[in-house]
User: Fold this.
Amino acid sequence: MTPTRYQITASASLIALIFLCLAWEGWLAPLKPGGSWMTLKAAFLLFPLFGILRGKRYTYKWLSLFIQFYLMEGLLRATSDSGLSQKLAAGETLLAAILFISTILYVRATRAPKEEKAAQSN
Assistant:
């Protein structure tokens, strides 16, 4: 696949994850009735949004590390919660995994030829 497809996949999964976090903690299955402060976890996903949409390689690199917190939270809540919250956690896990994989593949696809030769010689 081309870097453009990885960029589109990463952008779509990041935007979907933002909306999922907002809906989940806002009104679908919040920790406390009436919504909770956990909606702020969606705000942290806004920081890399423009870098991902613009194809900034550095943003892809640090997002691949940062997104693992959402993957961990999704796995934890998918195994400990029940009902709708458990299903939403599984969705968060899936979206975070797709985002993680697409960021890694984008970074690899946009690697400079000089970096490839250095990596192969090691």
In short: The mean pLDDT is 92. The CA atoms of residues 19 and 42 lie 8 Å apart. The two ends are 26 Å apart (CA to CA).
